[in-house]
Write a structure and sequence with these properties.
- This is Histone deacetylase domain-containing protein.
- Keywords: Hydrolase.
- Pfam families: Hist_deacetyl.
- The protein is α/β, with parallel strands linked by helices.
- The protein has a single domain, classed as Histone deacetylase domain (Arginase, Chain A).
- 45% of the residues lie in helices and 11% in strands.
- It has 14 helices and 9 strands.
- A 9-stranded mixed beta sheet has the order 1-3-2-4-9-8-5-6-7, sandwiched between helices.
- Helix 12 links the parallel strand 8 and strand 9.
- Helix 8 crosses helix 9.
- The radius of gyration is 19 Å and the shape is globular.
- Bound molecules: zinc ion.
- The site of zinc ion has 6 residues, from loops.
Length: 370
């Protein structure tokens, strides 16, 4: 496994050297220098944050006056769905509700994204698909594949959600850590939607950061389902590394090839799951050395999830999120989180479960003195 992974990473680097002269500095000496930077946590974080992205934030409202963890949320993350639809649309506002009610965050931490423009979306999605999707011209078969009937509301919701992930990435680059209350629609491909995912927010954010600042992005996808759309989109892109830990027998039936896939057996519990993540992430961070991590903290590996097949507990999810964020931040790398998948008829229970990542992020923010 390790040998195979090494090869993949080196292959990525070879591609980088061909397309991006900036990455040629990979001599053994530079490796050591890189390691020094990793060990020298604070200075690197300070060097990376405040770099700013070329333009203003993609936001309706930013909270530059607040020194606390940025939480990215928009009331338009939701839309109406037909009665008894399986997708738990009501969870998004409830995540924010519980974070405020439990005094994990205050209103002053809430940054509001702007809607993702068609231009921004076109860095990942085809013009043909965007035209059809935005104007309601996708066929019934295409809509069935996504799990959603088309509506103006669903288009708007997905565009705000994508804007939220882009803003979370921007805020993380400035502050070191930022969390959206939506996002993680990793099954969307350039030319079609699939599995409740219509626009690939993770891919749009990664492409935007890479295109505008030439920075390398690692996508850590711990949703129980493979991030097939994201894997496909970045298959040939050396500056974006896709890492997916998922249940092998779960959706999608036909998997794509991520840069690193860890396929898990059904029924895995906390300890085995955590040791798998712990065995790969630190080494991956040190070897690929991303400038930004996008973390899909899907809660569908939970034992009660309707669409998951693993057996994690709330505590297991908390330990997982804490580990991912602490490990990344301690290496001086900014990280933006999205909530990913989670399925239950009990919306409040589900929203509380999704809020685990924001609670863990708050702990990391305080413990790491950010
Ligand atoms: Zn999922």
């Amino acid at each position: 496994m390790t040998a195979c992974l090494l090869f993949d990473l080196r292959d990525k680097r070879r591609q980088q050297q061909q397309t991006e002269p900036i990455f040629i500095l990979l001599s053994p000496l530079t490796e050591m220098t890189g390691l020094k930077w990793v060990l020298c946590k604070k200075p690197r974080l300070k060097a990376l944050v405040h770099v700013g992205i070329c333009r203003r934030f993609h936001a309706e409202l930013v909270r530059l006056e607040s020194k606390e963890l940025p939480i990215i949320h928009h009331s338009k993350y939701v839309c109406e769905l037909p009665a008894n639809h399986r997708f738990p649309m009501g969870k998004f506002p409830r995540v924010l509700h519980f974070l405020l009610k439990d005094q994990v965050i205050t209103e002053k931490q809430v940054w509001v994204p702007e809607i993702a423009s068609k231009d921004l979306l076109s860095c990942v999605h085809t013009e043909d698909y965007l035209n059809k999707f935005i104007s309601g011209k996708t066929s019934e078969q295409e809509q069935r594949r996504t799990g959603f009937p088309w509506s103006e509301g669903i288009v708007s919701r997905c565009r705000y959600e994508t804007g939220g992930t882009v803003l979370a990435a921007e805020a993380a680059l400035q502050r070191g850590l930022a969390c959206s209350t939506a996002g993680g629609t990793h099954h969307a491909f350039p030319g079609h939607g699939s599995g409740f995912c219509l626009l690939n927010d993770l891919a749009v954010a990664a492409k935007y950061v890479n295109c505008s600042t030439k920075r390398k992005v690692l996508i850590v996808d711990l949703d129980v389902h493979q991030g097939d759309g994201t894997a496909f989109i970045f298959k040939e892109e050396p500056a974006v590394f896709t890492f997916s830990v998922h249940c092998g027998k779960n959706f999608p039936l036909r998997k794509q090839e991520s840069d690193l896939d860890i396929s898990l057996e059904d029924g895995l519990e906390d300890e085995e799951y955590l040791s798998t993540v712990e065995a790969h992430l630190p080494w991956l961070l040190q070897t690929f050395r991303p400038d930004l991590v996008l973390y899909d903290a899907g809660v569908d590996p939970h034992w009660e999830d309707e669409l998951g097949r693993l057996r994690l507990t709330d505590q297991g999810l908390y330990r997982r999120d804490l580990f991912v964020m602490k490990t990344t931040v301690n290496q001086g790398i900014p990280i933006a989180t999205v909530i990913g998948g989670g399925y239950s008829r009990d919306i409040d229970k589900l929203a509380l479960r999704h809020s685990i990542v924001h609670r863990a992020a708050t702990q990391v923010w305080r413990e790491c003195g950010m």
